[in-house]
Model the fold of this input.
Amino acid sequence: MTINNTASSQVGIEARQHWMGVLARASEESLEQRLEGVGCPDYRHVRAPEIGLAMVRGRTGGTGNPFNLGEMTMSRCVVELAGGTLGFGYVQGRS
Done:
């Protein structure tokens, strides 16, 4: 018997994407307050936080020829939880 988990895994992906977006838009102060109440899980840095630049591109009229709009700062990090789950993230800015 074959079990199709495609629908349930898609729901899981969409939920994860939603919550990653919520966390990415939250203020640093708000995140710190919430973490104080819950506590931080055991983790290790697989790739320590790094700051760099990314080229932002646009398109003429939204669908036309691409062009370089400019650069923005980005931060990225990869962590592993004590249970072995890996997580990574890229955010705009230096925090």
The first strand starts at residue 43 and ends at 59. Residues 6-25 form the longest helix (20 residues). The mean pLDDT is 87. The two ends are 48 Å apart (CA to CA).
